[in-house]
Design a protein that fits this description.
- The chain is of the alpha/beta class.
- The chain has 3 domains: 100 residues, NadA-like (Rossmann fold, 3-Layer(aba) Sandwich); 96 residues, Rossmann fold (3-Layer(aba) Sandwich), CATH 3.40.50.10800; 74 residues, Rossmann fold, CATH 3.40.50.
- 42% of the residues lie in helices and 15% in strands.
- It has 15 helices and 12 strands.
- It has a 4-stranded parallel sheet with strand order 2-1-3-4, with helices on both faces. Strands 6-5-7-8 form a 4-stranded parallel sheet. A 4-stranded parallel sheet has the order 10-9-11-12, with helices on both faces.
- Strand 7, helix 9 and strand 8 form a beta-alpha-beta unit.
- Bound molecules: 1,3-dihydroxyacetonephosphate and iron/sulfur cluster.
- The site of iron/sulfur cluster has 13 residues, from helix 5.
């Protein structure tokens, strides 16, 4: 059991001290709580976090995100110690795509190219031809020769969106994100009527009717850049509301409205996996260098191949 935390500690200051002592960096995703984002050395979308994890010279990477993201860091930079605030921080997309079922699905489509969204386990990555993220998926799909069938897993919403923008038919795995499927077209129409000046921006994990209402669709980083650069004064943001922390910093004069979940009595627009991480757990992971992300070397090597193909195209 970890030694309990002294309640008088200034956790943010202690984290800064431990980072120096351990030669560690904290990488955080935009869906983390504000206090975690504020101690991070680097914030980014899945692609930028993977690229940063690959290039860091730090001895320790503390990955404040979800399991598949920390796994990707370890795959790309195995020499580093990768610690996570909470090993149980998963992802509904990754959980909904077990490797045995994925292999059987692939086997039913001989000769097809399998593109897997980075929100999947290392085991599924190892069985895939290409990995993609929400920021490079269109480019990866367009790079596949026209005569090849594409299997796209595990997010059917991102897959259908890609089909629409590239005109390329694909065979879809039927997975979805429990957070992004909570946004409803009906609620967004009502909200837009109350804020006629507002522009809707959405993550491509949202369902098709929501994406069709959006003026801009993109990864978390691209949503942030769009909102900051746009001359519009008001935005309805259809993704996890953690992103609003950086949007408010980048666009302090704009009105930013988090898209509501279908059932407003719940907080189901917040990712319960991302929110398992707390500032206390970030501190403990750096203090104890635990829990660590480990994986068998053979699996790591096989999972790296489709990630490297993605990075070469990014
Ligand atoms: P991004 O790569 O856009 O940050 O998305 C990660 C994710 O899990 C979205 O739900
Ligand atoms: Fe997974 Fe959805 Fe959470 Fe992103 S928001 S980590 S896709 S469950």
């Amino acid at each position: 059991m970890a030694t309990p935390i002294d309640p008088s500690l200034d956790l943010a200051a202690e984290i800064q001290r431990l980072k120096k002592e351990r030669n560690a960096v904290v990488l955080a995703h935009y869906y983390q709580d504000d206090d975690i984002q504020d101690v991070a050395d680097f914030l980014g979308d899945s692609l930028q976090l993977a690229q940063t994890a690959k290039s860091t010279k730090a001895d320790v990477i503390c990955f404040a995100g979800v399991h598949f993201m920390a796994e990707t860091a370890k795959i790309l930079n195995p020499e580093r110690v990768v610690v996570v605030p909470d090993l149980e921080a998963g992802c509904s997309l990754a959980d909904g795509c077990p490797v045995d079922r994925f292999k059987r699905w692939r086997a039913r489509h001989p000769g097809a190219v399998a593109i897997s969204y980075i929100n999947c386990s290392a085991a599924v990555k190892a069985e895939s031809d290409y990995i993609c993220t929400s920021s490079n998926a269109e480019k990866i799909v367009r790079s596949i020769p026209e005569d090849r069938t594409i299997l796209f897993a595990p997010d059917r919403n991102l897959g259908r969106y890609l089909e629409r923008v590239t005109g390329r038919a694909m065979v879809h795995w039927q997975g979805s994100c429990i957070v992004h499927e909570t946004f409803s077209e009906r609620k967004l129409i009502a909200l837009s009527e109350r804020h006629p000046d507002a522009e809707i921006v959405a993550h491509p994990e949202c369902e098709e009717p929501v994406l069709r209402m959006a003026a801009f669709v993109g990864s978390t980083t691209n949503l942030l850049k769009y909102v900051v650069a746009s001359p519009k004064p008001t935005f309805i943001v259809a993704t996890e509301p953690g992103i609003l922390h950086q949007m408010r910093k980048g666009a302090p004069d704009k009105t930013l409205i988090a898209a509501p979940p279908l059932n407003e009595t719940c907080a189901c627009n917040e990712c319960p996996h991302m929110k398992r991480n707390t500032l206390e757990k970030v501190y403990l992971s750096l203090r104890d260098l635990s829990p660590r992300l480990e994986m068998p070397e053979g699996l790591r090597e096989r999972a790296r191949v489709p990630i490297d193909r993605m990075l070469a195209l990014s």
